[in-house]
Write a structure and sequence with these properties.
With about 230 residues, the protein is of the alpha/beta class. The chain has helices at about 15-20, 40-55, 65-70, 90-100, 105-120, 135, 145-155, 175-180, 205-215, 220-225, and strands at about 5-10, 30-35, 60-65, 125-130, 165.
Length: about 230
Amino acid sequence: MKNSAIILLSGGLDSVVSLAIIRQKFDNILAITFNYGQQSFNMEYSASKKIADYYHIGHELITLEWLKKISKSALTSEGSVPDIKIEDLNNKNLTTESAKSVWVPNRNALFVNIAACYCEALCYNNIVIGANKEESLTFKDNSVQFIDSMNEALKNSVNSKVELIAPLINMNKEQIVKKGIELEIPFEYIYSCYKNSDKNCGECESCSRLKRALELNGKYDVIERIF
């Protein structure tokens, strides 16, 4: 299918804004959500399903039980996910340690490669990921270098032309929320939390980044609804 894309949809801020952006460009979009044993899976899947329904796109779930078995990440264990206060988000030592604790081995590259299988088999020609400038500071698989290297690999791993796209790669969270406001995304459906909570916990690093970005954009009504 020409003018088509598969989006890696977690239900969090970045994937939802990415989806809203690419809807302006691609006519045929399929969302893929992964269950790799993360604590937040049930809420992520619920959010992703609501978002896919909201935008009237196809949605598939892929389960990777083996990834949980080999991962020592706080995301996939019964242990505690570290919390970071908003005022500490610019502390490189704290955010580096937080990133290490929630790192899942080769996760984003694995997701992209699985999406590439779908692309070649179902004739989609783009993969969309919510990689962004802010998280690239501590997660190297959110960086420009990661996107470029994956695109080089895709040239030799699939027979059709498939491109990895990151619409937010030059944006920080404040800018991403601003874009979401502009595109009128359903903020009430977003689940960006690392934990298994009824609402976004407001305490883990992912939640703190989202909350700070919402505050900087004056979206206090959203904060009241989703935290």
